[in-house]
Amino acid sequence: MSQPLIQHREDETKSPGRAISFVFPMILFLGGLALFTVAFNYPDWTGWLFVGGILAVALAFAIPTTILPALEDRE
């Protein structure tokens, strides 16, 4: 029988990094949605705010899926 690809770590549930890995991306995601909303109300800044919203949402998804696992494997 093959080993599972993802192994559960016991010490992960109590680490403050786990809370940060949820809170910070959530703030970025909501901030990106707010930038999208504001972008459609101010025609002079539409392009910059829209790009900022895209970057904030992309970073919100990149932190827990790629950045944090890469930092954990570095140790």
Question: How would you describe this structure to a colleague?
Answer:
Helix 1 packs antiparallel against helix 2. The chain has a domain of 47 residues. It has 75 residues and is mainly α. It contains two helices and no strands. The chain starts with 15 loop residues before the first helix and ends with a helix. The mean pLDDT is 80. Helices cover 71% and strands 0% of the residues. The relative contact order is 0.13.
Percentage of residues in strands? under 5%
What's the end-to-end separation, in Å?
Answer: 29 Å
Largest sheet: none
Radius of gyration: 17 Å
Proportion of helical residues: over 70%
Shape: elongated
Strand count? 0
Q: What number is the mean pLDDT? A: 80
Sheet/helix structural class: mainly alpha
How large is the count of helical segments? 2
Task: Give start-end ranges of low-pLDDT stretches.
Answer: none
Could you give the order of the helices and strands? Answer: HH
Summarize the structure.
This protein has 75 residues and is mainly alpha-helical.
SSE inventory with pairings:
Layout: H1 16-39, H2 46-74
Helix pairs in contact: 1-2
Features:
75 residues, mainly alpha
